[in-house]
Every structure is written in structure tokens, then in C-alpha cells.
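The following block was generated as part of the benchmark described in Methods. Ligand: iron/sulfur cluster.
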Amino acid sequence: MTLDKAPILGVFPPFWRDEGPHFVLSHFQGLMKSLGADVRILDLNIEASLALKERWGDLSRNCDNIWNEPQDVAGCIEKSGIANLLAKAIAAHQPSWVVFLSVNAARNHATRLLIREVRARFHEKIRIAVNGPLCLGQKDAAAIFPEADLVWSGALESAIPGLMGQCDKGTLHDFSEREYFPDYSGMDMSKYSKPEQLIYTWNFGCRFRCRFCLQGAQYAQEFRRSPLGLSGRLQKLLTDFPTVKYIRFYDGSLNADKNLFHDFLNELDGKNILWGGHLTPMPYLDRSIGERLLSAGCLGVNIGVESGSDSVRKLMGKPNSLDVVEFCIRELHAAGVYVSINLMVGYPGETENDFNETLRFTSRMAEFVSCIVANKTGIYAGTPLFVDAGKLGINLNGDVRHEFLFNYWELADGSNTQTIRQERLLRIESHIESLGLKNARSPDAEDEGTRALKHWRIRNRKGVPSTCAE
Ligand code: SF4
């Protein structure tokens, strides 16, 4: 494969949280470098956040976590000066491509404005690509960003032939087998609001295919790396970025593959690397695994319970029963692991009885969990739930050409609406508070990473054996 000599510029546009670099940047950089490309990355989200600091959280979302006012976005872009930063980077690097990464509904308007700026300042000389879930579920993704030369919605890897130009199909096949790793070169953690946390994605996709989940929609197949050598890579990151205290794995499920999960725990055992991540409840996640998690530096795990009703979990396509979920939570807690759980109210098919079962589930589990994250069900484009919306009697109440997360959906029979979901969310939040916990999504809730770190320190202070330093 021959490569363009000019660099490729990967750009992450606003709006996203300001806690750390989005994982797509390190993934893109690692991927392109492994192909021999000269790649540069530019996090315009954090640059805008730094420029407009005072209300970044409010600026980045409306009440449904989606930015939807183009004129306000335009005002933000202008005030932040990020169009000038982008123009400067293009003038300095003369890239063959400017690739806007992970564009979703929240980043839609900002990306369009930035593309227009690039076109206005550099005419047609610069090739522009757009990648992102906004295009999921689209028959003609290119029509969503007509100003761009290449538009795609799936895994980054699927655009390699387009970006590299000279890559033939045979090479692409080989490419899917190749090894590459997240690359954080050039990133400045001190710019971010949570420099103690590094978001790291080790695996992509998930074999379980829950019907609401984006993992399956974005990644046609599960991509799992061997954990061999992972500890060395993480140690190097901790040395390169001294502010980082812990790694937050962004994988959908760290333990989808039982054997690789055991290898993962062995690889991190006793290495003084603190980390947290998502686990899928499985019958083998017992107390002894909990002890191994702690010995491997696990600060905390998050479990996607979503509903306390087995019938709703079946509708979701969850891979196991509530018995297994409760077993895992109790066992991990007994070992001393910080356990946080996710709940999602108002799934299509959830009845008032099902909802009450979820309330009872939280009452049973309250003493075993340290944190609960509760949210309303939104429907993401590209998921089986989205694809089957018509069959399920769901009116999405949105246009897939402009959105990819539908928060205002309702059942045609009126039994599940945004108002009903909001009311259930308020009820579950007050129930959680009555149990002495707080919905971690509340604006005034303490940061989960900070809570997990405190939990770890208290546990160590009590003299519970642990190999990891504070
Ligand atoms: S187990 Fe988790 S990551 Fe996997 S499909 Fe289900 S919700 Fe998604």
C-alpha cells in the first residue's frame, strides 16, 4: 500500500464532556499510525471548552442531552475561536484529509459550521471526511453531509480504503487482522477537567447484542485484543501522564469472553494500576473473581442492569436472568468491590408493574451497590430497537437525517410517552434517595471516579489486603 505523504488531521468537534480526550482520538491515532500514516489530532471540543469555560456543561446539552439550536452553536463556535484554530492547523500541516470524528447529534451543527469554514477558507483543496453515529441507520450516509468527500458511520477501519486511497480490498482484509493500540501522543491531559482519569478502549463491539445498545450497531463484529502486554502499555501511559491516577475502560463489556477476562485479570494482577470498567453479569462472577478484581487494581465496576423486571430484560435481549445479576452484585460487594449499576426506565413494553419490580429490585440491592445511574430509555439509530420501531408500534417523533438519539418516542397506543418516562424517572430518583443513595446523573451528584477512589482508599486504610498503592 502506498500512502499519501501529507498528514491526516483527525478532529474531534464540540460538544462532549470536558473531562478527558474522547477515546476516538487515541483510537484513530493508533490505527492510522499502525498503517504508516502521518497523523495529527486536534481536540476542538476541549479548546472550545477552555475558551468558554464558565458554563461548558450547560452549553453542551439541552434537557435531553442533545444540542439542538443551530444559532446558539454558531455563537459558541464564533466566541470560542476554534474555527481559527482549525484553520491554523490546516495551514501548518497541509493535511491530505481533515477527518471529523465521532459526529453525533450533539456535534452535528458544530461539525457543519466547521466544514463550511474550511471550505470557505481553503476552497476545494482539502478533502473532508465525516465519521459518526449520526449517519447510522441512513440509507445514504453521504447525503447527510453533502459538503464532505467521504462520510461513514461504522467502525473507523471501514473507511481506510477511502482515506488511504490506494488500499485494495485484499489489503483491507489483512488490515482487519492487524494489531494496533490506542495512541495518546501529543495529548495534554492538563487541559481537561479530570486529568486524574484516562479513558481507554481495549475492545470494541459486543457479542450479546442487547436490542437498545449501540455497540452492535456500530461494530458489525466484536473486536477483542489479547490482554498480553496491556499492563506495560498502561504503565507507560501512567508515566507519560503523571496526573492520571486511574484508567477508565470504555469497553461495552470487559468480560464478554471468559477466557480473555481471566487473562486480563492475570495480566493486571499486582501491577499497581488502578482501573474501572463495565462488566456483564455472568454466573462465574463470584466472590473469588471479586477478590481477583481487587488484586488486579479494580477501583470499581459498572453493571448494566437496566431493569428489575425479568420480562423487560428479556425484551431488551439481556444475556442473563435477574437471579444472575443479583448473585453477581452480592458476590462482588462481599469481596469489597465498588459496584455501580445502570437503570433505564420506560423501555418499550415496560408496564407499571415492571417499573414497580425495578423499584423493589433497587430496595433489595441498595446495601450492595455504591452507586446507581438511572436514566430514561432513548432509542439510538441503527440499533435493533430502532430498526423494529414500526413493528413495535413506536413513533420515533424525530427525523433520522438530523438525529440519532430519539428521546421523544412514544408508543402509538399512548402507554409509553416521554411524559410517562420522565415521571417514572422522578419516582425512581426519589426512591433511590430514600435508600440513602443518589442518581449519579443528578447535576449535584459526586463524581463517580472520585467516589470509587475514596472507597478504595478507605478499604486500604482499614488494612484490607491489596497489592495496589493509593
Ligand atoms: S452486554 Fe452491554 S455492551 Fe453488550 S450489547 Fe448488552 S448493553 Fe451492550
